[in-house]
Structure formats: C-alpha cells, structure tokens
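User: Hi! I'm working on a homework problem where we have to compare a predicted structure to a textbook description. Could you give me the structure for the chain below?
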Amino acid sequence: MGCPKNLVDTEVMLGMLNKSGYDITPNEDDADIILINTCGFLQASVKESIRTILETSQTGKKIVMTGCLLDRYKELENELPEVSAFVSSKDLSEIVKVFDEITGKKENKKRYFDYFSTEFDVPRYKSTFSPYTYVKISEGCNHACAFCIIPQIKGDYRSRTIKSIVSEVKELTKEGINEVILIAQDLTSYGSDTDNKKENSLENLLKELVKIPNSPYYRILYTYPGTITQGLLDLIAKEEKILKYIDIPLQHSHKEILKLMKRPFDEEKIDDLIFRMKKTIPNLVIRTTFIVGFPEETEEHFQHLYNFIKKHKFDHVGVFPYSKEEGTTSFSMKNHVPHKIKQERRKKLMLLQQEILEEKNKSLIGQKMFMFVENVIEEKNKVIGRTYRDAPEIDGITTVSGTAEAGDIVEIQITKAKIYDTFGKIV
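Assistant: Happy to help. Predicted structure tokens:
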C-alpha cells in the first residue's frame, strides 16, 4: 500500500522470501500467509490500511504486517490480535526469520544483509510485468517540514552506497528493465549523511549508473529545491540516458506560507531555480506538487499560488488539500482552513492546470519522440506507453497505431492531444 518506496520494500521482502523457499502468489485464496505492507502517511491512508487488515482477517489466513503505519503507531502491536506478526520497516532483513517462526519451518541458514548494506545482495521479486521499475537510493529525511510526519516514521536520512545501487541496477538490466526511476524522500540530498558528501552525491551516482553496459534510462523523482545543484542540471542536459524530467515538490509559492511550512525558500529563489532548470535543459519537463489550505492560508495567499502556477506553466501539477496529522508541527497551529474551502481551492488549481496541460499537449502535435511501450492491443493495432514527458502511474499515457511489443522503445509522432493523454503513430 502507499507510495513507490513501499513497493520497493515489498519487492525486496518478496525476493528474500522467494529465495528462501517460499512460493509467492498474487492470489489471496491460494496463500497461507498474507503480507500487508501498510502506509501511514496521511489519515486517509491510515484508515485504508486498518480496513484492509480487518477485511483480510475475515479470510482466516495468517497476516504479517509491516510498513509506515506500524512505524508510526507502535501500539498497534497490542491492538490488532488479527495479525500474526509485525515487522518494522527498519527490520526488513528479518522477514524470512519471522515467516519461519510462523510456519514452524526449520530456520533458513541464509541471512540477508540490511537493505542499505554496502554488500547489497538482496534479491528483488518483481510484482508487476512492467518494463520500468523503481530503485530506492536512500531512506529517511532530515528536513522538518511542518506538515510532514515522515522524519518521525522513517528516521534520519540514510544513503545507500553507490556500489550497492549500481549492483542492483545491473541485475535489473539483465531482467530487461529499460527505465529505472530513482526515488527517495529527498533525492537530491543523497550522500549528505556520508563522510565524503561530494564524492557520494546524486550527480556522481548518476555518472556511475550511465556507465552500466546497455544502461536503462533514468528518471528522477522527489528532488528537494534547496539541494538541486547546477552540476546536476548540467549532467542531466548532457547525458542521453537521463530523462529530461524533474519532479520538484514546491508545496507553495507565498513566502509567508513557505515560512510556516518550514520550507527555506521564497518566490525569488524558486523563480531563479526554475529559470536555470529550463535554460540548462532544453525541453525539460517539470512536475511539482502543492498543498492548499495550509493553516493561516488566506485568499490572498491562495491567489498568489494561482498566479504562480499560471506564470510558470508547469508540465504536471499535483494539488493536495492540507491534512492535519498528529505529530507534525502544523497540527497545533491556529486558523485551520475549513474542509470545503480547501476542496474549492484544489479544484480551482486543477482546472487551471488542465488548461495549461491541454495547451502544452497540443503544442506537441507533429513532434517526433521515443516512447516506452507498456501494453499492446493487437486486434486494434494499438500500442500504449509513455514518452519521456510522463512518469508511470502519475502522469498521462500515449496511444499510437502500429506494431510493437511490451518493453520496446519506439519512435513515434504525436498526431492528436487531449488534456492528459496524447495519440500518434509509430514512425
């Protein structure tokens, strides 16, 4: 459940279990044990995770619970008798031992290193058939954003070694993966927790990754505005295998709200960064996210954000109504915005972004670019996939006429565009 970082953790656990003799099945009816990797980021995800556990318990199957929800609310170990075992996300390498104890199986002699060990030997069990995958390069976060509970759940920032990440990507490449999406809570702080911060930077990690024989393409998500360097931008512009796509959650534009959010930026700094990003990287696609209805956000603050989006015309925008989360600094703030107003503000921004995106997509008509093929409808002579402009699961898709196979990379020409999706033909 939850974000791609949880998906990676799930696949790592499944890999360890599978290598230790456990059969993996996506069919709940066939399973003896059901592994539920929960999300506890927002109250909506907390409720969904609890509901899933309670509904699953009706099957009579043994349940193993792990994930952010457990790390956020340790007391759940005493409040969920339906669960046979609990595994903190900090102890994923113990998952085989836990399963052995539940099943009474003689303990496996094979012990896995911690996921963030220098000697990375953790197998991944791909849970999807897609030609792309996510690779998590760090855990935790050192920022103290007022709205976020992640540092309390995941702890301080911890980078994996470049060696271990390169090793994992080499294995994934052998499996036919053609797009690796690098993820972390804060991607651009990679290496900042190490003794040699300059050598262990995101820039140097990418330099090593593109050296891999038959290297996949790389997409970077969750970059923090304050730690994007000019060197990183220059590298993205230079390297063919690094997609010209940057996800940079800005959260707001008004300096007063940014200060309350404990985000050390102002509009001038953000404007300068966006200008340099676009100047350095031709045809760069920028994705960002904003929070509306943060405590003390006035109509003036919101209008500032509206105009900010209108000015910069971002390629992709996600807008989220503020969620009041216990344990965060903003939880005890005054002047919380009513739910109805938050929803109205979100709707206004999304309607604005739809206009911007439709205009941008229409400007692509006639252009040629390559596309990652994800699905094929042979009887209709249709091929479905994504160009570099779209990240999986969160952005649009492209449908073209022609012949190809899932996993191919083909050149296409855009002939038609809608608000979120584009259409064309293989050329």
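For your comparison, note the following. The two ends are 39 Å apart (CA to CA). Residues 339-362 form the longest helix (24 residues). Good luck with the assignment!
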